[in-house]
Amino acid sequence: MKRGTKVTLTGVVKVTGLDAPTGVVGVHRNGKAIKTLKLVVSKKGKVTFVLPKSLKKGKHKIQLRYKGTGQVSASRSKVVVLTIT
């Protein structure tokens, strides 16, 4: 991606037996939290967010981390590497 380009990412939290999980998803870049998103029941586990246009040139490792609830365990997505040129 070229620096300054708008990058919109989407993730989905799926939980066996639940149509619409609740809780919080953290967006991490290179291991550090950059945004926290609340799961909304009407979205059925889907979260969408825009990365900052100010990301520096280089590789950025992006990961979603579901914090879990009292009934559902926490989990992490695979790491996606975004290269800014």
Condensed summary:
By secondary structure, this protein is mostly beta strands.
Give the termini distance in whole angstroms.
6 Å
Radius of gyration: 14 Å
Helix share, percent: under 10%
Helix and strand composition category:
mainly beta
Per DSSP E runs of 2 or more residues, the count of β-strands stands at 7
> What sort of overall outline do the alpha carbons produce when their principal axes are compared?
elongated
Low-confidence region ranges: none
Average of per-residue pLDDT values: 92
Kindly estimate the percentage of residues that lie in beta strands according to DSSP: over 45%
Summed up, the domain count is: 1
Could you please say which CATH topology applies here? Immunoglobulin-like
Assigned CATH class: Mainly Beta
Number of helices: 0
Largest sheet: 5 strands, antiparallel
In N-to-C order, the SSE pattern is EEEEEEE
CATH architecture classification: Sandwich
